[in-house]
Amino acid sequence: MTPSFSAPFTPASDPILPSETPAATGPAAHQRRSVSENKLVKRLLRETGKAIGDYGMIEDGDRVMVCLSGGKDSYGLLDILLTLRQRAPIDFEIVAVNLDQKQPGFPEHVLPDYLSARGIPFHIENQDTYSVVKRLIPEGKTTCSLCSRLRRGILYRVARELGATKIALGHHRNDILATFFLNLFYGGRMKAMPPKLVSDNGEHVIIRPLAYVREKDLIAYAKLREFPIIPCNLCGSQENLKRKEVSRMLEEWDRHFTNRTWNIFRALSHVVPSHLMDPALMDFAGLRPTGRADADGDRAFDEEDFPMPAFSEDEDEDGRIPDADGPAEQVIIRPRARRTAEP
Fold first, then answer.
1. Alpha-carbon torsion 131, 137, 142, 148, what sign?
2. Sign of the CA dihedral 285, 286, 292, 294?
3. Strand-pair partners of 123
4. Does the annotation place 235 within a ligand binding site?
5. pTM over the 0.70 mark
């Protein structure tokens, strides 16, 4: 059984904060900023630990390869996992891996300098995928698909060479939601990014420890920790990508509809196959009356009722909504993965 990651980190009494905080305009402002920073760090540690525990992402003796791109998400993932490793009830290794794709102007010294200064084991893989992508993809066309395939194959090989048992990616909750809607709108299928999955070559286990984390928290954390962010010039300028369009849609919903994106995210872990239409998931052809009442049976003539979710972003672990002066570090976000009922 995989030990729980959640208990050892709640509450976090010793969050890791930068050694230098920005100058405050006064004692009260400094105190408010410190409280806010502590809440942010505790929330990130708690949510990442909870996701790891819910999906059994990391086990005793694992060697976790953290894919570090130089963006806020992968920096945040590495930093949070390093902290959790210090507190975890199990032992596991972490090695950071960066794929230098030889983009023009890429500051190749930044990541080695950062990782060396922090004493983090790392490997830099040098492969000129930039030239390959630019040669094969016409100007103005989306480069993501080819770039992703090339990068994936290289990282799988590196993981094998390093003896990594898990490959950790920095995808967060917003990425998962965006992927869901891309598949829904353009692929005609209900599919997202799972928190844990076997790689397409069948050799590796891919994990996404930030699955419960909101992007805005990672943005704030990157500023707090002053990560040396490296922009991606290969694809970052492609503003018309469908993913960016979906992301803008989700941002708009967050501004105007409280809890809408939260409810959608929660739904990804509360699937009712009998009320969908996929015969691969439900044997519709073989359905017969059982003679037993079933609360999940069809109620075609009942009016639909959409209650608030059992656990929302504005509630604490006990289901209470803290007041403005309450312990705001208790405000967490998680879908509470469904457990199989005891017989």
1. negative
2. negative
3. 97
4. yes
5. yes
